[in-house]
User: What shape does this take?
Amino acid sequence: MRPEMVVESLPVAFLFVTVFCGYLFIAFEEGRMVPFGQRAWLRAVIWIAACYGVLAAIVETPGFGALPARMLGMPWIASTIAAFQPLLAAIFDLGTGSMMPAYAMLAVFVAALSASLLPQDIARLAAPFMLRGSRH
Assistant: This one.
């Protein structure tokens, strides 16, 4: 099998979960880092991308509605979710029929999680290096 075939056969939701589990392996307690960063806009991007991943999992799983219907004892939930799945699929793939928008959102999710690992005082690190006692 070619790597392209493997990537195409994996559900996008599985890739979201894999990236998130890899992010959870980072030990935040030992450093000064805060999970998901301290910037509110970055946390919002992470949450939006994660919600997209959850909804993509609902869209990609044909029998998803059976689980909550069985747990809650309300069979109408399964038919309601099954009715909304094609509509959500059309919204998430932007009417193209391909999963490229989902892969783009996965890339946004990975970039946002990676950006949350950057130090908060990055501007200080970008300042020019000056020796002690030297003049500008």
Summary: The longest helix spans residues 40-60.
